[in-house]
Design goal:
This protein has 315 residues and is an alpha/beta fold. The chain is built from 13 helices and ten strands. It has one domain: Metal-dependent hydrolases (TIM Barrel), CATH 3.20.20.140.
């Protein structure tokens, strides 16, 4: 542990009650990952120790906490956040937390923001890219982002499979394609509906290198010149995209990595592992094969995260 230095911003928590009470929903959206139902905090610590990760920021993955009932979602979010906060206390210096919000329940989410930030001292909020067939830039979510902007919050956005696209290609796992596309969809939604420009103090982290954003950024910029879209983007598309932080979970191949770096620069890239969906070592080894300069490697694995979340250095 004397050598541990890495900070993992994309690390999932699955409280025992969540594994049990949401087993059907988790199984439906995470086919092929039976290890999720064996997760414990100590398992994460052991994996972090093996791979030189000093601190991981916990978040709830897809399918989130909302399964069609606001009261159930509020209760689940509160219990998940209290559980994560307890791990931060029990394993001092090893965990941070992005608080789950019960979206699409806006009122419940505002209440949970107050609890998570004021009582639990969360490091940020964790959202999904979509809820049913609404994406984060939808005007219905404006009060949530206005409050997060007031708090100058870090917002970690994890991909989801939207209601429209649960079975697009028969025989192909829905997450293979749709998780990447849905990240791009929600970024476009936040751009074109003006959330990014209206809420400049929210610091966004998007998973998996922003999905297909690097490959479509030029096309998005061209569409944003339309007279309807332009007033909502007074600083332009490139300005807004370069503010985003992107983690490199599943994006450590040279072609993917270089496309992301070309878009936002190494200073906006973060180590993310998606554990326990896969071993942390796969991501660490993939980064090691990129041949990065020492300064860039340090920034990617630790420095950029501390610039965004300096409290993690204090343990």
């Amino acid at each position: 542990m004397a050598q541990a230095h890495r900070i993992d911003v994309h690390h999932h928590v699955l409280p025992p009650f969540y594994q049990q009470e949401a087993k059907a929903e988790i199984s439906a959206t995470a086919v092929g990952f039976p290890q999720l139902f064996n997760w414990t905090p100590q398992q994460s610590i052991d994996e972090m120790d093996r791979t030189g990760v000093a601190t991981s920021v916990l978040s709830i993955s897809t399918p989130g906490v909302w399964f069609g009932d606001n009261a159930r979602a509020r209760d689940m979010a509160r219990r998940c956040n209290d559980f994560s906060a307890q791990q931060v206390t029990d394993f001092r210096g090893r965990f941070g937390m992005f608080a789950a919000l019960p979206l699409p329940d806006v009122e419940g989410s505002l209440k949970e923001i107050a609890h998570a930030f004021d009582t639990l001292k969360a490091d940020g909020a964790g959202l999904l890219t979509s809820y049913g067939n609404t994406w984060l830039g939808d005007p219905v979510y404006a009060p949530v982002f206005d409050e997060l902007n007031r708090r100058k919050a870090v917002v970690f956005v994890h991909p989801n499979v939207p209601g429209c696209c649960t079975a697009t290609i028969p025989g192909v796992a829905q997450g293979l394609i749709e998780l990447l596309f849905d990240t791009t969809r929600t970024i476009i939604s936040l751009l074109f509906n003006g959330t990014f420009s209206r809420c400049p103090d929210v610091r966004f982290i998007f998973c998996h290198g922003g999905g297909t954003l690097a490959q479509t950024a030029d096309r998005i910029a061209n569409l944003a010149r339309h007279p309807v879209a332009a007033p909502r983007l007074p600083n332009g598309v490139e300005y807004e995209l370069k503010k985003l932080y992107l983690d490199v979970a599943s994006m450590t191949g040279k072609r993917s990595f270089n496309a992301i770096r070309d878009l936002v620069g190494i200073e906006k890239m973060l180590l993310g592992t998606d554990y326990p969906f896969g071993p942390i070592g796969n991501i660490v080894e993939g980064i090691g094969r990129l041949g990065l300069r020492a300064a860039d490697l340090q920034a990617l694995e630790r420095g950029n995260a501390l610039g965004l979340l300096p409290q993690l250095a204090r343990g």
